[in-house]
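Figure 3 (text version): structure tokens given as input.
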């Protein structure tokens, strides 16, 4: 219904700002929001860094992009140019995904574009405080904050000073997972390696743990290395393969591409996540909805997830090989318990973090923000 209501607005240009160079859940969420805007018959315009992963993905979808100059400071001249951009392109709403950039544009949008709503998306717990005496008046310029959990409302207030009434809890926006139930491969795990991971050191914990198991006589295990793209195009492929051969693990490690995360996750007994972005990872949620327990880095959002749905899996401290190995063993020793818990909660997770709830929450927030600004400047 809200998508239809949003279509009632004629020719809205929505500027979405995402300046990350990697391909994390934040960039994928930005691209998803661009698609939602497109489906609502409005026009998304992506403000990003040239050559970034999201730049490439947006280009493939035909989304218009404007490039941010990474190395030059965002000074008064840049503020002027950004203000001209908003007016020149008739921008109706600005949606920002980066806290530092948000704080900069709050300042000048209050004076130069007071009629344009400003939205912010937060996917993980903010560690440092952005509150200060001089920022207080400007942060009120934010009309809406999109978060995946209710528990993040307090973090938004404590770290940024944005009124909790402006926070919209929308979930993570995961697409539906419709899979044929398959027999899972015994003693199997899977991990999805993102295209921006280029150094072996970023996933060395996995190889070291596998080698440790093998030296202790546990040979009957499979590790599926899922890659978003083609392994042949990955800078990491050759080095990773050399380590697998050096440790004599070629029978245990299987390189997978050309499959979706749910397709891979539905065939293994455990989903691993090694990279800790601090964000709520969509791949992990896709695995859970596919019925697979998880072993994930310990951070604020992952703890919230595991507290909300007990026994979905375990968390570990990144780079702590010993704890990683212990938690891995613990899950497999009690696999039935974890699998049963995931089966019990997977439908609830799919609803709570599904795309329909997310889309409804996002568009409701957009409509409210637009209506609020219209009332003020009527």
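Below: residues designed for each position.
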């Amino acid at each position: 219904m809200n998508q239809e209501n949003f279509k009632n607005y004629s020719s809205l240009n929505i500027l979405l700002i995402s300046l990350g160079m990697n391909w994390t859940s934040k960039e994928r969420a930005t691209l998803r929001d661009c698609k939602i805007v497109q489906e609502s018959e409005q026009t998304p315009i992506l403000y990003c860094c040239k050559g970034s992963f999201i730049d490439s993905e947006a280009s493939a979808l035909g989304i218009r992009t404007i490039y941010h100059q990474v190395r030059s400071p965002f000074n008064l001249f840049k503020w002027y140019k950004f203000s001209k951009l908003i007016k020149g392109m008739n921008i109706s709403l600005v949606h920002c995904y980066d806290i530092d950039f948000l704080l900069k544009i709050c300042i000048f949008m209050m004076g130069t574009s007071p009629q344009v709503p400003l939205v912010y998306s937060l996917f993980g717990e903010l560690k440092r405080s952005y509150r200060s005496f001089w920022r207080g008046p400007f942060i009120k310029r934010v009309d809406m904050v999109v978060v995946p959990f209710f528990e993040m409302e307090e973090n938004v207030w404590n770290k940024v000073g944005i009124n909790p009434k402006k926070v919209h809890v929308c979930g993570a926006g995961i697409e539906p997972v419709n899979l044929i139930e398959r027999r899972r491969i015994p003693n199997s795990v899977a991990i999805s390696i993102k295209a921006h991971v280029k150094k072996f050191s970023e996933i060395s914990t996995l190889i070291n743990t596998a080698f440790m198991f093998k030296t202790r006589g546990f040979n009957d295990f499979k590790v599926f290395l899922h890659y978003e793209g083609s392994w042949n195009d990955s800078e990491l492929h050759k080095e990773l393969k050399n380590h697998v051969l050096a440790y004599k693990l070629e029978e245990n490690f299987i390189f997978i591409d050309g499959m979706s995360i749910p397709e891979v996750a539905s065939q293994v007994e455990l989903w691993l996540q090694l990279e800790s972005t601090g964000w709520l990872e969509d791949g992990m949620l896709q695995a859970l909805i596919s019925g697979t327990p998880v072993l994930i880095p310990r951070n604020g959002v992952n703890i919230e997830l595991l507290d909300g749905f007990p026994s979905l899996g375990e968390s570990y401290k990144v780079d702590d090989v010993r704890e990683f190995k212990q938690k891995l063993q613990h899950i497999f020793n009690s696999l039935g318990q974890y699998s049963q818990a995931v089966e019990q909660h997977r439908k609830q997770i799919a609803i709570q973090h599904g795309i329909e709830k997310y889309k409804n929450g996002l568009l409701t927030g957009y409509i409210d923000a637009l209506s609020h600004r219209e009332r003020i400047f009527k």
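The mean pLDDT is 88.
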